[in-house]
Specification:
seven-stranded mixed sheet, binds S-adenosylmethionine, alpha/beta
Length: about 270
Amino acid sequence: MTPAGLSAAEVKACCAAAYSSDAVALVLGDSFHPGGRPLTRRLATVAGLQSGERVLDLASGPGTTALLLAQEFGVSVDGVDLAAASVARASAAAQAAGLAERVRFQLGDAEQLPFPDDAFDAVISECAFCTFPDKTTAAAELARVLAPGGRVGLTDVTVSAAGLPPDLAGLAGWVACLADAKPLDGYADILAAAGLERLAAEDHDEALAAMVEQVRARVTVLRSVTRSGAALQGVDVDRVLQLSAQAATAVQQGVLGYGLLVAGRRAA
Ligand SMILES: C[S@@+](CC[C@H](N)C(=O)[O-])C[C@H]1O[C@@H](n2cnc3c(N)ncnc32)[C@H](O)[C@@H]1O
C-alpha cells in the first residue's frame, strides 16, 4: 500500500527523482545500495554469472553495478531505470569506461519492462525491488524476461515480521527504500509466485547499519562545511537526520536489515 493520498505513479516518480539528484550522489557515493561494490561482487558470485551472459540490471541508478558486472564478470548488461537523469549519468559512465558496446542503459519501468520474453540469462536488482509499489507485477516481468534456467539476484532492505515504526512508513521512508520492505522470505514468496524458485539467501544487516551511519555522517559534515548547506539544496536535512537516527535504531533492534536473495527459473 502506498502512503496516504499518493498514487503508485507518484511514489515511483518521487523515488526516481530523489535518486537522480546530485545531493543523493554526494551523500551515497557512486553505489546507491548498502554493501557497495563488495556486496555486488558477492551477489554476482552467488547468482553464478558467467562470462558472455546477458544480464539485466533492473533499476540501474548511476550504473555502478552494471559496469562492475561487465568489467569483472565479462557479461553484457542492459540497465533500466525510471529516471531519465540516471540513465544519462549511467550512459556517460559506460562511455567513459570504454564499455558502451557492452553496457547500455535505457528508460523503463520494472512493472512493464521494455524487453522481449526470455531475453536475459540473469536479472540483478539492488536496493530497488522494495520500492516497487506492485511487486507481484514486477516479479512476473522478471520471470518473463528471464530465459529458462536464468537467475534473478536481489539485494534489498528487509523488515522483520514486527513491521516498521510508523514514522518510517511514510513517503520519506518509501523513498529511503524502507517503507514497503518485506522479510527476505516475503521477497522469496513473491518471486516463487511468479515461478522463480529460491536458490540462496543471506543476511547482510551490517551493510545497512554502515550505510545509515554514512548518510548521517556525510549529511552532518556537508551541512557544516558548505555555506548554508548549499550542496544539499532541496534536501530536508533535519528530516534526513531524524530518519537516519530512527533507521539506525530499527537496525540495532533487528527490525530493519539487508539481505541477498537468488532465485531461478526452471530450465526448459
Ligand atoms: C536506491 S536506488 C538503487 C540504484 C542501483 N540499483 C544501485 O544499487 O546503485 C533505486 C533506483 O530504483 C529506481 N527505480 C525506482 N522505481 C523504479 C521502477 N519502477 N522501475 C525502474 N527503476 C526504478 C530509481 O530511479 C533508483 O535509481
